[in-house]
Design a protein that fits this description.
19 helices, Serine Threonine Protein Phosphatase 5, Tetratricopeptide repeat, mainly alpha, Beta-clip-like, H3K4_H4K5_MeTrfase, three-stranded antiparallel beta sheet, 3 domains, 40% helix, binds S-adenosylmethionine, 12 strands, zinc
């Protein structure tokens, strides 16, 4: 990764490393102001600039996008929020214009543009809305470049240049995008850039945002007793407790032979009583599911493939929107209680369905988010307070180690580990909410991008997906918040299957040494998230992507240690 070499990056932060505390305070003031004036396009822009200074370019892009949508509302009187958006502009003038619009050469460039028509003919509100629009394009294009979403960045940049062809800042941003694109695509300095060939998936910070008040102390008595009360209904012989887990490493290390390795505290599932080989350990039903096939016959609630719809079928369709089918009365009742009325007959069913092969994972996570939003809307609670995700740890990284300067590099910083794209993190979630008849501006507190990102971080570490047997494409996904509390081990003492329920049962024999199965009271339930028949190198490579680091379980360390000492075969010792 190399930084862009530029001595006067006028589009980047005006100040180097501004202090974080006052910026966080300013962010809170602007958030409070938006709660009272949710259609104020200038406030959104101001908050976007604060987010840029705080090195959250994704959050800056989301606020600029909301401001852009409101500028459209101002210009078009047939739009739903036209009156409200226009009313917020009453407090602002074009001269002097709001500070946030007075950026670089923007105001002069605009003066030149409106001179011909005359400011009055153009209408002061429309001029302000146009200035806002160009400022949004500047922030969107630069911020998306910083997140690594080059295609969306270039598209917004070109839309800005179409409005104000001579704007220096937009031209500069376009130059940066092309420079990064050429390096990433390994093209020569004069090679043309084809927008559709540009990468559009980036990465952003994965953290408990400093203002996020929804994350519980997962180790507190209250949290553990809440979790254990729920767990007792699905796994009566188990309890949730604090577990010391090996710290995951970034890659190969020489610590495989050490007797003591660094650990960190997390949660895990433990047996309270002896569990016999073959005995069921946990049976969990979850409504936090997603299905990315448009015309596939799966239960809308639990994701199970529906039985043939003949006269003996127990399947139930919703009486209000006939297309939504559930496997039986149980699933229909659960859906009605927990989410379905929020999306019933709202035409959200076709969104993100049948994705291109490259978008399959993103579509499944997006549809899990859509289900979460339906659950929180119907239950009248904040999305991060929904029981199914509240206690999940999203493999967050400490805010301070995520905190990098805002310089433009070929890729986002390696500490930023949450996958991100404009389409799946910002555009489609807002589109889904609009389809659900939700006012995306008045519900900012529940539907801000940092809320979506937090939910995505939780899904990414825990969701399981199922492949369609016909074409092997993953098309159903689910989060099972209790199943996923059982930590991974390459010598697991349980195995699992996900049909309508997630069922975990004790293995008859262990992988290592064919030892007899069963779990003794006090022992940890050792789950497996990957195919434990793979050799150690492949298991560890898999763990890097999915567990978040190099697996350091006893079996991996023993097998890797033997391989390093030249002992042939890295399979389990028999
Ligand atoms: C599905 S969660 C398991 C529950 C988690 N320990 C908790 O506190 O909620 C998966 C996360 O647990 C941790 N984890 C699970 N198995 C692990 C292992 N064998 N070694 C180290 N960390 C593990 C990793 O941080 C992983 O991303």
């Amino acid at each position: 990764m190399s930084a862009i070499d530029s001595s006067s990056p006028s589009v980047i932060m005006d100040e180097k490393d501004p202090p974080r505390g006052p910026l966080l305070e300013r962010r809170q003031q602007l958030t409070d102001a938006l709660a009272s004036s949710p259609y104020d396009l200038i406030l959104y822009l101001e908050r976007a600039v604060v987010y840029s200074h705080l090195a959250y370019p994704d959050l800056a892009a989301a606020d600029a996008y909301r401001s852009l949508l409101l500028a459209d509302e101002v210009r078009d009187e047939s739009f739903e929020y036209h009156d409200q958006a226009k009313a917020t502009l009453q407090g602002y003038k074009t001269t002097p214009c709001p500070e946030v619009l007075n950026h670089g050469s923007l105001v002069q460039d605009f003066d030149r543009l409106v001179d011909g028509a005359g400011a009055e003919a153009a209408g002061e509100y429309n001029i302000l809305a146009n200035l806002v629009t160009v400022r949004c394009f500047q922030i969107l294009s630069l911020s998306l470049l910083l997140c690594g979403c080059l295609k969306s960045a270039l598209s917004f940049c070109e839309r800005g240049i179409n409005m104000v062809p001579h704007n220096r800042e937009l031209r500069e941003i376009k130059g940066y995008i092309e420079q990064v694109a050429r390096r990433r695509l390994r093209k020569g300095p004069d090679a043309p850039i084809e927008i559709n060939s540009l990468p559009d998936r980036g990465a952003v910070r994965r953290e408990v945002y400093p203002w996020n008040t929804h994350e519980p102390d997962r180790f507190s008595e209250d949290s553990l007793s809440f979790l254990n009360a729920r767990l007792s209904q699905m796994a009566p012989k188990c309890e949730v407790k604090v577990s010391a887990l090996p710290v995951l490493l970034d890659g190969e290390s020489n610590t495989d032979g050490y007797d003591i390795i660094p650990t960190c505290n997390q949660l895990g599932l433990f047996a309270k009583e002896d569990i016999a080989p073959g005995e069921t350990v946990l049976e969990e039903y979850s409504l936090l599911t997603a299905n990315n096939r448009h015309k596939e016959s799966n239960c809308d609630a639990c994701g199970t493939e529906l039985p043939p719809l003949d006269s003996n079928s127990k399947a139930v369709s919703c009486p209000e929107c006939y297309d939504t089918i559930f496997c039986d009365e149980f699933c229909f009742t659960k859906a009605q209680e927990q989410y379905h009325p929020a999306v019933c007959d709202k035409d959200v069913d076709s969104i993100a369905k049948d994705p291109d092969a490259g978008d399959i994972d993103q579509s499944l996570y997006l549809l899990l988010l859509a289900r979460l939003l339906a659950m929180s809307t119907h239950q009248g609670i904040h999305p991060l307070e929904v029981d199914e995700i509240k206690y999940i740890w999203g493999d967050f990284v400490d805010s301070s180690s995520n905190d990098v300067d805002g310089s433009i590099t070929d890729e986002p910083p390696p500490e930023w580990t949450l996958p991100f794209s404009f389409k799946y993190n910002i555009e489609i979630p807002l589109h889904i909410l609009e389809k659900m008849d939700i006012d995306i501006f008045a519900t900012l507190d529940k539907h801000d991008l940092w809320v979506f990102n937090t939910a995505y971080a939780k899904f990414r570490g825990t969701a399981s997906a199922r492949k369609n047997p016909r074409d092997q494409r993953p098309d159903v996904a689910a989060v099972h918040p209790f199943w996923c509390l059982a930590n991974h081990d390459c010598n697991p003492n349980v195995t699992w299957e996900w049909g309508g329920r997630m069922v975990l049962w004790a293995r008859e024999t262990r992988v290592v040494g064919n030892q007899p199965g069963g779990i003794k009271a006090g022992e940890e339930v050792l789950n497996h998230y990957c195919d434990v028949n793979l050799p150690v190198q492949q298991r560890r490579e898999w763990a890097l992507g999915s567990l978040g680091g190099w697996c350091m379980c006893k079996r991996c360390r023993d097998e890797a240690g033997r391989a390093a000492n030249g002992v042939k075969g890295d399979g389990p010792p028999s």
